[in-house]
């Protein structure tokens, strides 16, 4: 069963991309997102090199093994990066959200997609040919620094995740993931993500049984509310405490 992750209460944070309606590409992304780190002039220049696209939930945006011809700059929404093991088992390797880039590493190394990318909600993206994206970074020192900063953040996040797994429980990591994925744009309930329990388990390095038990426990305690296709955070403070975060 897939779940949308939402939350109730509190004011939304600043710094969200504005891409509703006319898909304005000049908003800002996450604090460390590539798009947010660009200047207005750099965003304008990059926008002129690509074309906007909208992907409905579940759309496969590119497939592992395909030639890597273009880069996705995520303007709105989340995508999951999916790999397949030698025995055919599908694993959700990572999530990328607004402000991130997807596909540029494969273009630099293998020249072919190293994983499948799928929209897990409505995704709005700027599509830029790989050669144009690479030339853009070469021509704009600020953009090149922003890209290197984003890549460094990814490596640091990956290293931190590995360290965290040795000192935290699966339930703690699941709580942290739900907080990260919750839609912070609305003071009421608003759908943001669709992920299965298997995918939640894969992303947190936990078993599906652990995910199922944790969700059931939090539901009984009134921390979350679950429906057929959604998870709503109803007690933000309690979930932050479980995740080991400051209230």
Describe this protein's structure:
The structure is a single chain. With 247 residues, this protein is an alpha+beta fold. It folds into 2 domains: 2-11 and 169-243, Orthogonal Bundle (Arc Repressor Mutant, subunit A), CATH 1.10.10.10; 34-163, Jelly Rolls. It has helices at residues 34-37, 40-49, 104-108, 130-139, 141-165, 170-181, 197-204, 208-220, 236-243; strands at residues 2-7, 51-55, 60-62, 70-76, 79-84, 90-96, 101-102, 116-119, 123-129, 195-196, 224-226, 230-233. The strands form 3 sheets. Strands 10-1-12-11 form a 4-stranded mixed sheet. Strand 11 (224-226) and strand 12 (230-233) form a beta hairpin. It is globular, with a radius of gyration of 18 Å.
Helix and strand topology:
Elements: E1 2-7, H1 34-37, H2 40-49, E2 51-55, E3 60-62, E4 70-76, E5 79-84, E6 90-96, E7 101-102, H3 104-108, E8 116-119, E9 123-129, H4 130-139, H5 141-165, H6 170-181, E10 195-196, H7 197-204, H8 208-220, E11 224-226, E12 230-233, H9 236-243
Helix pairs in contact: 4-5, 6-7, 6-9, 7-8
In short:
The chain is of the alpha+beta class and 247 residues long. The chain has nine helices and twelve strands. The protein folds into two domains: 85 residues, Orthogonal Bundle (Arc Repressor Mutant, subunit A); 130 residues, Jelly Rolls (Sandwich), CATH 2.60.120.
């Amino acid at each position: 069963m897939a779940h949308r992750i939402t939350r109730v209460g509190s004011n939304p944070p600043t710094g969200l991309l504005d891409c509703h309606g006319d898909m304005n590409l000049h908003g800002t992304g996450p604090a460390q997102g590539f798009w947010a780190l660009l200047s207005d002039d750099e965003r304008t220049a990059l926008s002129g090199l690509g074309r906007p696209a909208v992907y409905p939930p579940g759309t496969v945006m590119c497939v592992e093994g395909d030639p890597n011809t273009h880069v996705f700059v995520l303007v709105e929404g989340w995508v999951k990066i999916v790999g397949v093991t030698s025995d055919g088992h599908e694993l959700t390797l990572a999530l990328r959200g607004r402000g991130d880039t997807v596909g540029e590493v494969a273009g630099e190394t293998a020249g072919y997609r190293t994983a499948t990318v799928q929209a897990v909600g409505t995704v709005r993206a700027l599509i830029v040919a790989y050669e144009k994206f690479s030339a853009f970074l070469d021509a704009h020192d600020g953009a090149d620094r922003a890209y290197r900063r984003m890549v460094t953040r990814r490596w640091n996040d990956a290293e931190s995740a590995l360290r965290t797994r040795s000192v935290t429980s699966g339930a703690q990591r699941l709580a942290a993931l739900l907080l990260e994925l919750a839609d912070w744009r609305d003071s009421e309930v608003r759908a943001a993500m669709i992920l299965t329990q298997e995918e939640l388990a894969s992303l947190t390095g936990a078993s599906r049984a652990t995910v199922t038990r944790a969700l059931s426990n939090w539901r009984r305690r009134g921390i979350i509310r679950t429906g057929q296709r959604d998870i709503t955070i109803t007690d933000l403070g309690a979930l932050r405490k479980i995740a080991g975060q400051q209230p």
